[in-house]
Design brief:
Layout lengths: L17 E2 L5 E2 L23 E5 L2 H5 L3 E8 L9 E9 L8 E6 L25 E7 L31 H19 L12 H14 L5 E6 L1 H12 L4 E7 L9 H24 L1 H4 L5 H17 L9 H13 L4 H14 L3 H5 L8 H13 L5 H12 L6 H8 L24 E6 L7 H10 L3 E6 L13 H13 L13 E3 L13 H7 L8 H13 L2
Parallel strand pairs: 6-7, 6-8, 8-9, 9-10, 10-11, 11-12
Antiparallel strand pairs: 1-3, 2-3, 3-4, 4-5, 5-7
Length: 548
């Protein structure tokens, strides 16, 4: 489920989208009167989707409807080849109707089809006032065509050569393997998609969805990479911006190479925070009270696994890193990860650790992740990449080389990269709500401040001192009640002066081991505070782990 070089796609993405219903209803007529067309592409209005019963059991049980949205492969050629975007919707039930709201869970490459049922998690019943739309972005999951390059990427996916290439053979293997993945994408059945996977293309798909829903304004809830998609959409279609919530805010100026370097540093710091927490709970984990000693032990164990992998030869140093990466993302699973790690340290049994490793699987999410980020912005060559990796690794070794190899396909991606979008929020008149925790590692906090500056109408909630990525709707009333009030009224408090957050809230709290029953119990219950059902929270984590 976590970030590995053989990404496991969301369980929903492979499902057939739609079982047509005899009484299928079309979307409302397109009432868009504002144009909303960004410069550089002719206008396009999609045909009305034919809505019917969803084949995905979770959506069907929730009363959602499913359809395919027809959009151009290339918006510069609106009468040319078309592709299908898989969409779902859950219609409002409150007569105080507020319009549509679309959701993107992150990635890029994450499936968002299930998030038409997100509205049920908004406090005070506010979600029932909206029509909620989930969608699989172009190339993802149930959208067609769906991109896959090499489902067997990285071989068996277990005990791979060491991420840290101190041995020449490991360096050669990673260079060969990552470049080979890029070559496989040039031969993929869906390779026609590759030049048309930029965030600007997805933003135009969002606007097509707005038109298909018959809305003059788009309301939007974006997590992680979804915040960047929101920024690009707002830049391209400023007059269509309604109520936007961005949680886990990406710095558009750093998309995407520098953003990955920022991650290398902050994830390493967050693992220190985790080791401190483990040390503070020595009575439960039994690994000692000196967090620095626990950290040193991690790197000794990593070296040992490099020589002698655990769990029947499957758990090497890379797999251990990939599993423990979750501790740098979120606090939700800290107890279960600590239990599994402590068992490995004390007994050498890596079974529980390996159970949290994604392992081999469909590479759809990883293929689209690369398809977007490798073409959205320019990437440097290997010489600079290698120099940056060694420089950062010296002080922050936990993630740096693993992250380097994860993004290495961009070094020779088969579709051209272009200059990144320069986001501009100066033309936005509506308020935008930003949410970020101080020590978010996936989208570092400085990015939230930079976005706040770029969008003068925005308002930033800071989860002070927290390390959780995109943790809204986790039961923190200060944050979640503000979201509900904003979506209900469109209003936010007055912005503070200076380069700072506007509202300070508690972060998602670290768990207490005595009160937690472990990873399996949490996934079954969704957590004691979480407003999101367990499957929606897990889906967010899966989508976001695609993008580190």
């Amino acid at each position: 489920m976590k970030r590995t070089l053989t990404i496991v796609a969301s369980g929903l993405t492979a499902a057939a989208l739609l079982v047509p219903a005899a009484n299928s209803t079309a979307a409302p007529a397109d009432h868009d009167r504002t144009g909303g067309q960004a410069a550089g592409a002719p206008s396009y209005t999609p045909p009305a989707p034919v809505w019917g019963e969803c084949s995905v059991a979770r959506l069907k049980a929730a009363g959602a409807q499913c359809a395919n949205l027809e959009v151009p492969l290339d918006y510069a050629k609106p009468n040319g080849k078309k592709i299908q975007i898989a969409v779902s919707r859950k219609l409002h039930t409150d007569p105080d109707y507020k319009g549509m709201i679309a959701v993107n869970p992150g990635g890029p490459g994450g499936s968002g089809l299930i998030y038409s049922i997100l509205g049920g998690s908004i406090p005070d019943g506010v979600g029932a006032k909206y029509d909620w739309y989930g969608f699989d972005p172009r190339g993802v999951g149930s959208s067609t065509p769906s991109l896959s390059c090499d489902p067997d990427y990285a071989g068996a996916g277990y005990d791979r050569p060491n991420y840290v290439p101190t041995r020449a053979a490991d360096l050669r293997w990673w260079r060969t393997t990552t470049s080979g993945y890029s070559r496989s994408c040039s031969k993929a059945d869906a390779k026609a998609l590759l030049p048309h996977l930029r965030t600007t293309d997805v933003a135009r798909d969002l606007d097509s969805l707005r038109k298909a829903a018959g809305q003059e304004k788009l309301n939007y809830y974006g997590f992680s990479y979804g915040t960047y998609l929101g920024q690009v959409y707002a830049t391209m279609f400023p007059k269509q911006v309604g109520r936007f919530v961005w949680d886990g805010v990406l710095n558009a100026k750093n998309a995407f190479y520098q953003a990955n370097l920022d991650q290398d540093i902050q994830f390493d710091k967050n693992l220190d925070t985790y080791w401190k927490w483990v040390a503070d709970h020595d009575a439960h984990f039994g690994l000692g009270t000196d967090w620095r000693a626990i950290k040193r032990g991690y790197y000794r164990l990593r070296a040992q696994l490099d020589r002698n992998p655990a769990a029947d030869g499957k758990l090497g140093p890379d797999e251990l890193d990939d599993v423990m990466l979750s501790a740098g993302y979120y606090v939700y699973d800290w107890v279960a990860l600590g239990d599994a790690y402590a068992t490995l340290v004390k007994t050498g049994d890596g079974t529980d650790v390996l159970a949290n490793y994604g392992g081999p699987g469909d590479d759809n999410g990883f293929a689209v992740y690369n398809g977007v980020q490798c073409t959205d912005a320019k990437w440097p060559g290997w010489q600079r990449t290698q120099a940056d990796a060694w420089r950062i690794h010296l002080k922050h070794p936990f993630l740096t080389w693993g992250n380097t190899w994860y993004n290495a396909p961009c070094l020779n991606w088969p579709a051209p990269s272009r200059n990144a979008v320069k986001v501009d929020g100066s033309r936005i008149s509506t308020k935008i709500l930003l949410i970020a925790e101080t020590n978010d590692a996936a989208t570092v906090y400085s990015g939230a401040l930079a976005t706040r500056k770029a969008f003068p109408s925005s308002y930033l909630i800071e989860g002070v001192g927290g390390t959780t990525h995109s943790g809204s709707l986790s039961g923190i009333a200060c944050t979640d009640d503000t979201i509900a009030h904003y979506l209900d009224t469109g209003e936010l408090p007055a912005r503070k002066r200076g380069n700072r957050s506007d509202q300070q809230c508690d972060p998602v709290p670290a768990p207490e081991p005595a009160a937690a029953a472990g990873l399996r119990a949490r996934k079954a219950t969704g957590g004691s505070q979480d407003l999101l059902p367990a499957d929606l929270r897990a889906g967010l984590q899966e989508a976001q782990s695609i993008g580190r």
